[in-house]
Structure to design on (150 residues):
């Protein structure tokens, strides 16, 4: 897998996508962003890891699970640990694509494949990577509205 990176003030930005798609115009580096300053950043999520920041396309995120003081970001290819709280990640991502299904899980609604029942109630989400996510009681009604089945 090829990676693109550049260094700016002791920070190294590393991504598996061309960095020029995400960097606004910067006079010192002589870089430019044709669509305007940071416009493409809406489509990526920065994952802070030890010594680097990895930019993950939002469409690639299947779900995000809480893991103590970290969140575990699941993509089709990998699982990444990101040091942040579920609340901060939910505030950042929950919009058109993402919804909280449980107090410890945020799901990408585009990756929900089916709802399954347990004891006659729809209580599990099956995602595109075949993970089963239990739906929390307090999140059930809002999730069903977002999925259009309320």
């Amino acid at each position: 897998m090829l990676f693109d990176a550049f260094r700016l003030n002791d920070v190294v930005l590393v991504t598996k996508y061309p960095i020029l798609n995400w960097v606004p115009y910067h006079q010192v580096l002589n870089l430019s962003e044709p669509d305007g300053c940071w416009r493409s950043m809406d489509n990526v999520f920065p994952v802070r890891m030890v010594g680097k920041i990895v930019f993950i396309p939002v469409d690639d995120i299947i779900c995000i699970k809480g893991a103590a003081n970290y969140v575990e970001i699941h993509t089709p290819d990998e699982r990444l640990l990101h040091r942040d709280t579920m609340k901060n990640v939910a505030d950042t991502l929950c919009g058109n694509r993402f919804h909280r299904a449980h107090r410890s899980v945020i799901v990408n609604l585009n990756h929900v494949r089916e709802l399954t029942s347990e004891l006659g109630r729809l209580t599990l989400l099956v995602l595109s990577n075949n993970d089963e996510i239990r739906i929390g009681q307090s999140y059930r009604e809002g999730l069903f509205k977002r999925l259009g089945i309320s």
About this structure: The CA atoms of residues 27 and 139 lie 47 Å apart. The helical segments are 86-93, 137-147. The chain has a mean pLDDT of 78. The radius of gyration is 18 Å.
